[in-house]
Amino acid sequence: MSVDVRIGMLHNPKELTLDLGDADRDKVRADIDGALAGATSVLWLTDKDGRSLGVPTGGIAYVELGSADAKRPMGFAPER
Fold it and tell me: Tens of pLDDT along 53-65?
């Protein structure tokens, strides 16, 4: 199963979205938890194409960790 990460940044209306491919979801979560706990000042993630993205942890508003295959609701209508 493919792992999808969405990161909301402070003072920025756009989210960062990465498809991490077949990454170990538990390891990704542990890396995110460590970065947000102050173990490092930059969270480094590598997407399925091998590109690395460094995110300064001080600017992170939220992180959503899920499956890239999961259904996401569109618009403002309640999910049915």
Answer: 999 999 999 999 9
Evaluate whether 43 touches 32 at the Cβ level (below 8 Å): yes
Residue identified by tokens 């508003």 is: 61
Cα–Cα nearest to 23, from 60, 57, 50, 48: 48
**pLDDT surpasses 80 at 41:** yes
d(CA 79, CA 58): 33
For the chain, domain boundaries: 3-67
- Does the model's pTM come out above 0.85? no
Which CATH number applies to 3-67? 2.30.30
Rounded distance, CA 60 to CA 56, Å?
7
